[in-house]
Amino acid sequence: MPSDHPLAKKKSVRVKDLIGRPLFCSEQSWNNEIPQWARDSFDKLHLEGSFRLSYNGSMFAKEGLGILLTFEHLIDCSKESGLVFRPLSPKQTSELYLIWNKYPSFTPIALIIGTFSFCALRISSIFAVTVSTASTI
Known about the structure:
By secondary structure, this protein is α/β, with parallel strands linked by helices. Helix content is about 40%, strand content about 10%. It contains 5 helices and 3 strands. The protein has helices spanning about 15-20, 25-30, 35-40, 55-60, 110-135, and strands at about 20-25, 45-50, 65-70. The model is unreliable at about 120-135 (pLDDT under 50).
């Protein structure tokens, strides 16, 4: 939401805070996670629009057209962005799965990017383990 929005002053956002306000959310979350979170109040919430990319929804929120419901860290919420993130209360979690074919066929450029990404992920994982081990000493 915009950093000057009245709800930006709160530490977290409850269902009652969102009633009567225009909301932007992915269609998948609106149909699956948000009804579980909002329970009996779901029918009082107003979906202004849905999107596939959180960045697109953030443009509407930045313009003050509504409140974006999305995962933390998917959009820029730095001071310069003019947006702030506030978690939902009670906390809402979603299980995410990364699925691909066992024997996928890639273009040559996809192989290069995939190899680079895997190496970066591997280095990042090793660094994270090193940091966590060092912090427990």
